[in-house]
Amino acid sequence: MSPPERRDFIYRHLHEHRTVSISALVELLNVSHMTVRRDIRTLEEEGKVISITGGIQLNDALRQELPWNEKAFLHHRHKRAIGKYAASLVEDGQVVYLDAGTTTFEVAKVLAERFNLTIVTNDFSIIQYLMNKPQLNLFHTGGQVDKRNYSCVGNSAAMVLRALNVDIAFISTSSWDFEHGISTPHEEKVLVKQALLEISRKKILISDSSKYGKYGMFHICPLSNLNGIVCDSQLPISVQQQLQELSLKLHIVNI
């Protein structure tokens, strides 16, 4: 395994487990302690991880997201349950926006069996999955292509959205908390999500609990701008209690 491949493995492993010891990485990668420490030093310089006693953890200040095909395997059981629940919030005849992401893909898989819906998305994977469903009306935003996330971003996509009226929007994110609201490490995503907030009658954040407590450089909106949040039951109870004090509906999916 080359050094970049090792560092990618470490970063993916942390997204699944939050923390990992140096000795565990030595065993997993079958390399020396010195090699692991060099890889950790590089990841620290890139702002992706923070050293703790005997190991490392993800940096809460998110600098980069994993690509779509890698994120799809993380917390999949949680995402599937969240997707199924979120889809139950959709009423017949509605215009539904599915934001780019692996959790919204799970919503799409359930809505694929519904009728009399219009699905709007900026996600190529979602469009491809729904393409052979003749009972659904499909609309893709187009725009600048984000190859890592199989989606469209930027001002062109935002302009298309501003010409639409959406009944319910399911918003994805890699990072959210009370202090920073919804945020992203990628500036080109901001315009799309902010346009979505403007044109949607109901705005629902769908996110597994692993995304809570992280924040990206670019602010999208405070949590109070949302109508609801769908998350799994591993979200800390103290956070659930705080969210219930806001003027939004918190939907907790038991895992």
Entry summary:
This protein has 255 residues and is of the alpha/beta class. It contains ten helices and 17 strands.
Q: What features would you highlight for this structure?
A:
255 residues; alpha/beta; 3-stranded antiparallel beta sheet; 17 strands; globular
Structure write-up:
The chain is an alpha/beta fold and 255 residues long. The protein is 37% helix and 27% strand. It is built from 10 helices and 17 strands. The strands form 5 sheets. The chain has a 7-stranded parallel sheet with strand order 7-6-5-10-13-16-17, sandwiched between helices. The chain has a 3-stranded antiparallel sheet with strand order 1-3-2. A hairpin with a 3-residue loop joins strand 11 (175-177) and strand 12. The chain is globular. The model has no long low-confidence stretch (mean pLDDT 90).
Strands, helices and their partners?
Elements: H1 3-17, E1 19-21, H2 22-29, H3 33-45, E2 49-52, E3 55-58, E4 61-62, H4 68-71, H5 76-87, E5 95-98, H6 102-111, E6 117-121, H7 124-130, E7 136-140, E8 144-146, E9 151-153, H8 154-161, E10 166-171, E11 175-177, E12 181-184, H9 190-199, E13 200-206, E14 215-216, E15 218-221, E16 228-232, H10 237-243, E17 249-253
Helix pairs in contact: 1-3, 2-3, 5-6, 6-7, 8-9
